[in-house]
Amino acid sequence: MSAEVLLACCMAIFVASIIPSPSMLLALAKGANHGWGAGALSGAGNIAATIVQAVASYVMILEVGGLSSSLLLGMKLVGALYIFYIGWTLMGIASSGSDREVAARSGSSWQHVRDGFMFAVVNPKAIVFFAALFPQFVGRSAAGGVIAMGVPIVTIGFACFMIYVVAGRVMVEILGNGRHVGKIFGICIMLCALALLFARIT
Fold it and tell me: Which Pfam families does the UniProt record give (predicted)?
């Protein structure tokens, strides 16, 4: 993969990662409600799901020749329900307090990793994105090119997630009243779930 192709690939990944999405709203909420550590754990789960989606997209293109519409529809329905549920649970979480107080109520590490993973893996739009990306940059049979893209996918994706985590924590420091911030995040995430439910995947 040439430097020019790699740069174009990185730009595409950055744009897709940095735009607001359910995963990025989760990053905001984790930063606001639970702090940096929980946000980083959710980011790790998010990246793990992204890798799974990238591999799944490549395999479906290479072996099947395309994406299954019924599979994407099922993922959309499950994803919308899960994201709506998480948004609902965030409605009652207060975000105020010191970093130590936030860490004390942050829950288990596994819970944060799971949230980050589930928010990403049940969103079929990422699979569609990778299915469109790979043929443009690495072709249908260049497995080495897909593997080489793993580094920018992981690095850029995690960096964008952490930008939102930091923004969420800064937002709480500025606004102060954490319970209202938690409600705002919860409502926004539930609206994203409804948008995913009624959106066209392709």
Answer: LysE (PF01810)
* Residue keyed to tokens 């109520």: 105
Q: How far apart are CA 174 and CA 168, in angstroms?
A: 10
DSSP-derived secondary structure letter, 50: H
For residues 156 and 17, the answer to whether their CB atoms sit within 8 Å is yes
Number of alpha helices (DSSP H) and beta strands (DSSP E) in the chain: 10, 0
pLDDT tens, position by position, for the chain (202 residues)?
567 777 877 888 888 888 877 788 888 888 887 888 889 999 999 999 988 888 887 777 666 555 566 666 776 777 677 778 777 776 665 544 444 444 444 567 888 999 899 888 877 777 777 777 766 665 555 556 666 677 888 899 999 999 999 988 887 777 665 556 667 777 877 787 777 777 665 5
Cβ density class 180-201: b for 16+ within 10 Å, e for less:
ebbbbbbebbbebbeebeeeee
